[in-house]
């Protein structure tokens, strides 16, 4: 953002603060480029003039509902505006057509009831207070009126409120596009009921959110030519597989495991289940229960939602049987075998769990045991059977659990899609994207790499869109915008996905080369990207690398990249599962197309994800996008706490500040002629006295003030960054001078009045005295 212009002594400004991000202050002295300010909490701070920003003292105390209405569009102004609104429980604010939603962490039912939906239906954008319904309504109307597909992209960090927002959007779209009075399993009902099912299997409690979605989701709602919902498709991205086997306190595994452990007694008995604390996959964390969530009730609710989705009784039975089998599988332990590097089932307890797992999966227990602890290698000469040591057997067990679970999840998504049904004749869709925001932790691995790659992609899409919107506004107003610079992150995307030579390609190469280790992979990266300005090799590290993302630098540990990128099912595991007598289990492991040779075509999670993203971007590019940026106001997940620094970081990562930057590169301040004259008429009263029309008067004021670069549109004045502050400073000077003249006049008047009174009193006293003296 550009440096402020015309900060003078007495100006009200925002100055940086290590605790509160920005505090307001008054300039007391200016010394070259150093400004001395006195903050409202009484401190004196010296800052560089480029680091202080003018404060709009005329901004309404409750904030403005659209950030573009702020006179000074800059970071502190934006933050202060959001804080002022959040205090009044106004959780939604626009920045142009981006909706910022700050998680209230408390139920605000009045915001989402049917009455609210009725109000927003058909209302013009910006007519009512900012709201998710308004965004959905605009998307719906645009689709109906222009026949064009629309998409709503919801993003934000974990716990920011993406899933809640998505559910609200879907509820509103179902309200607009649903059929009233239709009974039974309607498409819109099925779309809504897909949420609890996906949440049961794809959500878990994490430190950052009690109901965190561990996958990305794109819901495509199809409409017929009358604007009624006629079909829907759900695409999911990158389910977190590691959670199935590994959790840390105080997190939980996927909800469905706990729901099932709280099922009615006869079902628990059927699946030989006990409390969650008796299962290794659940008891690694002490947290088994969730405040405010009744697992038994949720189990029944999930079954009901499955009914609505058309998942049959038999299928439901098989699904939960598989969930139970995974829990038992996790309880199988291994001990060292007699032979070198071999293992055996540890004890009777483990054997019991092995048998139950086999029983539930309807597969042969001995084959399952062999698949867990042995590997068969086929060479041209012979077939060699190799045993696994206990550690490797545990790895094998966990790999099987993760594969079964992720396939179960994919099956559910496919089933939901089939049962809702697609409308092949649908001409227009509204897509809702609920996807993980930018992540940067102390330790970042392959998952964060993929997530941040997604965000780079979306950021590019966002920049292009915001830039386009700006251009459209300028074109509409017929002003020249040719010199506005476009900010692009193509260089980071090239670094990650370019083929050949990008990180994903190099990772695939490393995975295919048997001798590769994470160290050789990291060395290859260091070598290849040593001159890339987006890539940094951290000092003293042999396996980590840093990428300079649009939202900041993130250091990744390459250690598990190779393992996590490999996307294959152990052949022995597949064989056991395919041989299951349960058709449901067998169907989770369809024979691969290239099953004849064991060295089936290499496939990697990274490349597959890249393709998925490509297809998502193609879909998004064919739609008119709308953006909702969710913000998590505090990490305590409590209402009414607004943490400035935390929020600023999110605005930065969510591209809100980037959007503002793009806007600042052009004409961030726009005022209608009327507003402009109202505010700045005092700068040229002689112009207002003449009878020129508003547009001419505005131009004359701009010329008189020497506002180079500003432009006059058809209905508005467009000002470059900082020009509003400059005009305000001049206005303050004029008003200050005027005030001084008025004060001078008044003082003269008062002094004269006092003098006259005094003189009259003196004359009276004198004449009285003279009278007295003459009568003596
Ligand atoms: N509009 C809202 N009104 C009331 N509470 C909300 C709202 N939005 C979010 N919340 C609260 O915040 C919690 C977290 O929200 P949500 O699960 O939607 O976050 P998320 O961004 O989807 O997180 P994740 O990426 O971890 O899935 C919710 O469980 C709910 O308690």
Automatic annotation (TrEMBL):
Gene Ontology biological-process entries: actin filament organization; actin filament-based movement
Protein name: Myosin motor domain-containing protein
Region (Actin-binding): 613-635
One cellular-component annotation, GO: myosin complex
Record family assignment: Belongs to the TRAFAC class myosin-kinesin ATPase superfamily. Myosin family.
Keyword Repeat on entry: yes
PROSITE patterns: IQ, MYOSIN_MOTOR, SH3_LIKE
Domain Myosin motor: 62-732
Myosin N-terminal SH3-like domain: residues covered: 8-57
Record bears the keyword Signal: no
Superkingdom of the source species: Eukaryota
Record InterPro entries: Kinesin_motor_dom_sf (IPR036961), Myosin_head_motor_dom-like (IPR001609), Myosin_S1_N (IPR008989), MYSc_Myo11 (IPR036018), P-loop_NTPase (IPR027417), SH3_Myosin (IPR004009)
Keyword terms: Actin-binding, ATP-binding, Calmodulin-binding, Coiled coil, Motor protein, Myosin, Nucleotide-binding, Repeat
């Amino acid at each position: 953002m550009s440096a402020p212009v015309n900060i003078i002594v007495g100006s009200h400004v925002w100055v940086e603060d290590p605790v509160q991000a920005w505090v307001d202050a008054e300039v007391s002295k200016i010394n070259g480029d150093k400004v001395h300010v006195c903050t409202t909490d009484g401190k004196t701070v010296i800052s560089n003039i480029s680091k202080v920003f003018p404060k709009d003292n005329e901004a309404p105390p409750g904030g403005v509902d659209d950030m573009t209405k702020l006179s000074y569009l800059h970071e502190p102004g934006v933050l202060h505006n959001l804080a002022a609104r959040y205090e009044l429980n106004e959780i939604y604010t626009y920045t142009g057509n981006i909706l910022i939603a700050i998680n209230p962490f408390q139920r605000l039912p009045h915001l989402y009831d049917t009455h609210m939906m009725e109000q927003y239906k058909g209302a013009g954008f910006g007519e009512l207070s900012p709201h998710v319904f308004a965004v959905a309504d605009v998307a719906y109307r645009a689709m109906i009126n222009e026949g064009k597909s629309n998409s709503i992209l919801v993003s934000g960090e974990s716990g920011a409120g993406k899933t809640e927002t998505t559910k609200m959007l879907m509820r509103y779209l179902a309200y607009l596009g649903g059929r009233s009075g239709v009974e039974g399993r309607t498409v819109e009902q099925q779309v809504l009921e897909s949420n609890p099912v996906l949440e049961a299997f794809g959500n878990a409690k994490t430190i950052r959110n009690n109901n965190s979605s561990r996958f990305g989701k794109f819901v495509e709602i199809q409409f017929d030519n009358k604007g009624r919902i006629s079909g829907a498709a759900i695409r999911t991205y990158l389910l977190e597989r590691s959670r199935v086997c590994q959790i840390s306190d105080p997190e939980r595994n996927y909800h469905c495991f706990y729901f099932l452990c709280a099922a009615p007694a006869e079902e628990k008995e059927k699946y030989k289940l006990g409390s969650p604390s008796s299962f290794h996959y659940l008891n690694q964390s002490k947290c088994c229960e969730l405040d405010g969530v009744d697992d038994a009730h949720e189990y029944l609710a999930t079954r009901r939602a499955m009914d609505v989705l058309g998942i049959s009784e038999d299928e439901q039975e098989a699904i939960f049987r598989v969930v139970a089998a995974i829990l038992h599988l996790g309880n199988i332990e291994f001990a060292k075998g007699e032979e070198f590097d071999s293992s055996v089932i540890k004890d009777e307890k483990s054997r019991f769990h092995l048998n139950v797992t086999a029983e539930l999966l309807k597969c042969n227990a001995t084959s399952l045991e062999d698949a867990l602890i042995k590997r068969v290698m086929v060479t041209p000469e012979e077939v060699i059977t190799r045993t696994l040591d206990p550690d490797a057997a545990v790895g094998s067990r966990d790999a099987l659990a993760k594969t079964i679970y992720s396939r179960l999840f994919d099956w559910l998504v496919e089933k939901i899609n089939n049962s809702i049904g697609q409308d092949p004749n649908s001409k227009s869709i509204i897509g809702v994207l609920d996807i993980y925001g930018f992540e940067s932790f102390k330790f970042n691995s392959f998952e964060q790499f993929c997530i941040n790659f997604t965000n780079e992609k979306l950021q590019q899409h966002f920049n292009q869109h915001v830039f386009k919107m700006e251009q459209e506004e300028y074109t509409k107003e017929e002003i020249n915008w040719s010199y506005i610079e476009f900010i692009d992150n193509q260089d980071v995307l090239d670094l990650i996905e370019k083929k050949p030579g990008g990180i994903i390609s190099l990772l695939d190469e490393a995975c295919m080369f048997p001798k590769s280790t994470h160290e050789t992979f990291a060395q290859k990266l260091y070598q290849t990207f040593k001159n890339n300005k987006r890539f940094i090799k951290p000092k003293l590290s042999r396996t980590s690398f840093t990428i300079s993302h649009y939202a900041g630098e993130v250091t990744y540990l390459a250690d598990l990249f190779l393992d996590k990128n490999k996307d294959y099912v152990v052949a022995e595991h597949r064989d056991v599962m395919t041989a299951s007598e349960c058709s449901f289990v067998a169907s989770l492991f369809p024979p691969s197309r290239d099953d004849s040779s064991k060295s089936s075509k290499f496939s990697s999670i990274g490349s597959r994800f890249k393709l998925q993203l490509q297809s998502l971007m193609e879909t998004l590019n064919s739609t008119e996008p709308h953006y909702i940026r969710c913000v998590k106001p505090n990490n305590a997940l409590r209402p009414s706490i607004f943490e400035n620094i935390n929020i600023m970081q999110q605005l930065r990562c969510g591209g809100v500040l980037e959007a503002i930057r793009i806007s600042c590169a052009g004409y961030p301040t726009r005022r209608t002629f009327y507003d402009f004259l109202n505010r700045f008429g005092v700068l040229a009263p002689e112009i207002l006295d003449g009878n020129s029309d508003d547009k001419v008067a505005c131009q004359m004021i701009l010329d008189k003030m020497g506002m180079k670069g500003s432009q006059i549109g058809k209905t508005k004045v467009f000002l470059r960054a900082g020009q509003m502050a400059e005009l305000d400073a001049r206005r303050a000077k004029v008003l200050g001078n005027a005030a001084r003249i008025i004060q001078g006049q008044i003082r003269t008047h008062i002094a004269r009045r006092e003098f006259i009174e005094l003189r009259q009193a003196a004359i009276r006293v004198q004449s009285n005295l003279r009278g007295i003296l003459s009568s003596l």
